[in-house]
Write a structure and sequence with these properties.
Helix 1 (2-8) packs across helix 2 (19-41) and helix 2 crosses helix 4 (56-69). The protein has six helices and no strands. The protein has 114 residues and is mostly helical.
Length: 114
């Protein structure tokens, strides 16, 4: 399935595709992006299990996944072992925001609240 997803990644999803087919293609795309970002960071999924929930490298990868392939917060949180999706949906995972670089457990910047 990975080869098919790579081959068709540049195409818009067709309306005649079923929901499970679309979900499958999206999941493969998220996984490929995760593998690329992890390799770039010199990490693997085993590292995610052994690292702190708010590890800087996890937050960086999560931000890349949101920006590049719009991976859902729930998938990111479960895959990277970040914690409950409600925590990983915080603005710290949005690259180039005022919150960029904060971990899910950081105190919000002055004048902001979670």
């Amino acid at each position: 399935m990975g080869a098919i997803a790579r081959e068709h990644a540049h195409l818009a999803l067709l309306p005649e595709m079923s929901a499970p087919e679309i979900a499958g293609l999206k999941a493969v795309r998220w996984q490929l992006a995760l593998e690329a970002a992890s390799q770039e960071a010199g990490k693997c999924l085993r590292d995610a299990e052994n690292s702190a929930k708010g590890a800087e490298w996890k937050v960086a990868i999560a931000g890349k996944l949101r920006q590049s392939v719009a991976a859902p917060y729930r998938w990111i949180a479960e895959t990277l072992k970040i914690g409950p999706p409600r925590l990983s949906a915080r603005p710290c995972l949005t690259p180039n925001s005022a919150f960029s670089g904060l971990t899910p457990y950081s105190t919000p910047p002055y004048g902001h609240t979670w």
